[in-house]
Amino acid sequence: MLDEHDHRSLGQRLDLFHLQEEAPGMVFWHPRGYLLYRLIESRVRQQMQREGYSEVRTPQILSQPIWERSGHWENFRENMFQLVGEGERHLAVKPVSCPGHIQLVHRMAPSYRDLPLRLGEFGLVHRNEPGGALHGLFRLRQFTQDDGHVFCAEEQMREEVFRFCRSLQSFYADFGFEDVEVAFSSRPAQRAGSDEVWDLAESLLLDAAKQVGLKCLMQPGQGAFYGPKLEFVLKDRLGRAWQCGTIQLDLVLPERFDLSYVDASGQKRRPMMLHRAMLGSLERFIGILLEHHEGSLPAWLAPEQVVVAAVSEAAASYAERFAAKLREVGCRASVDVRGESLSRKIVDAHHAGVPWLVVVGNREVEKNALRLRRRDGEQRDLPWDEAVAVLVAECRPSAAA
């Protein structure tokens, strides 16, 4: 029996998603859940645009030579879904978007004027996780990464790390996470690249972290097989730690794929590559978010922000008009005109995680007013226009961003 605050229980209660045996480790998103998913995606996209990322889309399946060149075939093959195509050609469903972004940079043939070149993708990826390791939204076989890569000159690398690290604190705070820790993960035993390359990558990334003022917990051997990384760890309401954001310095893949740019003197130079994600996995972050807020999401994230409850037949038309007005100005509002008691409607709205209940009775109709009831029970009576203004201010995305 699942705990009521487990994200899988909350997913059922709030009608967000479900999992079933016929699609192990993959999510069936319900309309309300997919709306939440898109709201988070929109917030990430907003951050990408602010930071100068160009959004791209790359193929789901790539052939074996690309995965051999990237090192995934040697270091990650057991976690990849493999296919045999025409003429016995081996293919794999992508577990990451990095090689696809590298193909784009090859075609772009950048010069120093184009750097830093920032590419971002909501990459749908697949990883062949063991069945026993699957755990709700926390461990899946299919999930979406907010995947970004920065291709830059060495002298630009430190500023790119600064930019990323500076933006994360307020980004996480929007979702209700104030406590953020940072870990530095160094070279693993199984890795690509020489010790000299790793020495340089680790020293550059650690120096950048120190200069931006980060105090890092050291995690020896926990880096990616192509480079060291900074990991950003969120603390939830129970004090549990969740690794979400990451930025990784990669000197290996640019070399393996022979990436280059033309510098101011016309010479070819090798760019550095930064892998970055703010959430890591959108699905996993939603699971963390649900448990952190016990299903009571901030108003800007709630799939249903306002329920307008009519407590008499005469008030039904007024309630419909008020809900229509809220939708017109951007609030996600519905109407409850069922013949249930007000207390029942309050319970149902709370059960569905709705932040605001607007009560409409004969008195409100006569006064052209509304009674606003916050999820915590606080109530206030307001005229129509003021009620609209209050709800818009509470519910709009800009209030969070």
From TrEMBL:
It comes from the Bacteria. Its EC number is 6.1.1.3. It holds the Pfam family HGTP_anticodon. It catalyses: tRNA(Thr) + L-threonine + ATP = L-threonyl-tRNA(Thr) + AMP + diphosphate + H(+). Belongs to the class-II aminoacyl-tRNA synthetase family. NCBIfam families: thrS. PANTHER family: THREONINE--TRNA LIGASE, CHLOROPLASTIC_MITOCHONDRIAL 2, THREONINE-TRNA LIGASE. This is Threonine--tRNA ligase. It comes from Archangium lansingense.
